[in-house]
Structures are given as C-alpha cells and as structure tokens.
Design goal:
Largest sheet: 5 strands, mixed
Mean pLDDT: 87
Strand content: 15-25%
Order of helices and strands: EEEEEEEEEHHEHHHHHHHHH
Radius of gyration: 20 Å
Structural class: alpha+beta
Low-confidence stretches: 174-181, 296-301
Shape: globular
C-alpha cells in the first residue's frame, strides 16, 4: 500500500510533464497480445480533465467504488478525481486529456455545461440524437486535428470540443429546472467549488465564502440547492469527506497523518467529523473498505 495517492502531472505514468494552459493529449487504447487483464492503478491528475471512449471489450472503473462497464461507453473524469481502470486484452477505445485551463476557456460562455462536467459520469445509454458513434467520431476528429499542422488548428479544436461537450451535456441533462439566472448562478457555484478546494476544512464559514463571491449566504445556499440539491455546508462537508475517503482507501497513511494532510486542526477533530458523517471512525471505515476489497486491514494508531 503506497504512502501517498499516485499523482501525475501528465497522462498516466508521466511525472515529468510540464502542463501548460493548452495541454492536450489524444491516445488510442488498442487491443493487446496478452492473456490477462491489465489496467491503470488508482491515481489522480491535479489539473487535467479526461474522457475515455470505450468501444468494445470488458472493462471496470473505480472512482471510488469499483463497477463493471458496459461498452460502448464514455467515462467523464474531472480533475482531482482518484480513479482507476481494469481492461481486458480485447478492449478498444481512446482517451482525451486536456488541462482545466483549456476546458474553462472552451466552456466559459456555457457555465451550465462546465458545472455538469465537473463530476464523474459513466455514459452507457445513448439516444437517437446523440449516438455513441457521433461522440467517437468527434473524438477521432480531435485526434486527427491534434496531430496535424494546419492553419486555424486551435479554432478547429475549440469548435470540435464545444460540439463534443454539448452532446455530452445533452445526454446528462434530464429536465434540470433552470434557475432564474442560470449562467450567473452556475458561475458562482463553480467559483464556490474552487474556493472550497483551496481552503482547509472548515477554515472558513459559509458567510466567508459568500463574502468572497460578493453575494449573501442566503443567496449562496439557494444557488447550491438549485444546482446540486444541497446546502452550501453539505457541499463543503462532502468535499472533505471525499478527500478523506481517498486517503483512507488508497494510502497507508496513519489517521493522524491524514488529518494533517487534510489540514484539520488536530486528529481528534478529524475523527469526530468523520464519525458524524459516516457513523464510523476513520480506522473502522478503512478496515471495512479493506475487507470489502479482500485486502488485509492495516494497523491503526
């Protein structure tokens, strides 16, 4: 068990990549001449957004729970998400990886799409209006444009990505009730998410976040309820709980060290928060996760 969650600056296995604002990678997942399954161990990319287009073959996805995938499918993975894959030798598909900065620029005029894509999604059901073949064709066009040296390359890529993201959004969009000012509300929600990621757990009150956004706490809560059906505090708690889960399940760090990594004022505060949210102590939660995975439980301090 590693002491830290594997983190890559570029694509899987790449520690050295200097990720610039316009970072973009397109890769094939080709069938392999081997008898056993292979895969990508749980890891994360701090500032990279990824799409996996799986055309055929068996596959499983872990983020955080492990689940079998039905191909064809599209897997949406936002930056900072711990995830892993297992592939059969016959798996076929492709991946697109781009920087968060590039993603923000492409979708700056459509924050509703940006917010929707800021969560893990597995799309295995397609419609007549948005078949898998159309999504795969766009991914293939992006691959071709990425590896060509033609005039207007960036403009072409931006256009292809916009069309791809709109089609994904249409698959994800299930009669969401629109807020009175959806673009503005979704912009505030996106900025709230970024502020949560920058702050230590409960370092700031909801009123502090609202003040940074230049809105009232009541307005911030209404935005969070409209976008995610949760209060602002529940969203802060869920973010902290998700990070705690990643450390407990994917590293062997002692609970006291995890509390330090998460910037809690002391391990006791972290344990009380975690027990209140899950009904289990961090050590018991980790032991149950190991038992479910068939792994021996690590000793807890």
């Amino acid at each position: 068990m590693p002491q830290e969650i594997a983190r890559y600056n570029g694509i899987y296995g790449d520690h050295q990549a200097g990720v610039r604002y316009d970072y973009l990678q397109s890769q094939l997942i080709a069938p392999r001449q081997r008898l056993t399954d292979w895969g990508l161990k749980p890891h994360l990319h701090g500032n990279l957004f990824q799409l996996f287009f799986l055309e055929a073959g068996r596959a499983a996805f872990e983020a955080p729970a492990r689940a079998a995938l039905i191909t064809p499918c599209v897997v949406v993975i936002p930056a900072g998400t711990v995830h892993g894959f297992t592939f059969s030798p016959q798996v076929k598909g492709r991946t697109l990886t781009l920087s968060e900065g590039l993603l923000d620029t492409i979708l700056q005029a459509t924050p509703d799409v940006l917010v929707e894509l800021n969560a893990v999604h597995v799309l295995a059901e397609f419609s007549a209006e948005v078949p898998f073949a159309d999504l795969l064709a766009l991914a293939q066009q992006i691959h071709a444009e990425t590896h060509a040296d033609l005039p207007g390359k960036q403009l072409a890529l931006n256009g292809l990505f916009k069309l791809l993201f709109v089609k994904l959004f249409r698959l994800l969009h299930h009669n969401r009730r629109k807020a009175a000012s959806p673009n503005r509300a979704l912009h505030y929600f996106r900025e709230f998410q970024k502020a949560i990621a920058r702050a230590a757990p409960f370092e700031k009150k909801i009123a502090d976040f609202a003040q940074e956004l230049k809105i009232t706490p009541v307005h911030l809560n209404r935005i969070c309820q409209a976008v995610k059906g949760r209060t602002a505090l529940q969203i802060v708690q869920a973010h902290t709980l998700r990070r705690a889960h990643n450390y407990l399940v994917y590293t062997a760090l002692p609970v006291s060290e995890i509390a330090y990594e998460l910037q809690f004022v002391d391990p006791g505060y972290f344990t009380r928060f975690f027990r209140k949210q899950t009904g289990l102590s961090p050590g018991a939660y980790r032991a149950r996760a190991y038992q479910a995975a068939g792994a021996p439980a690590a000793a807890q301090p």
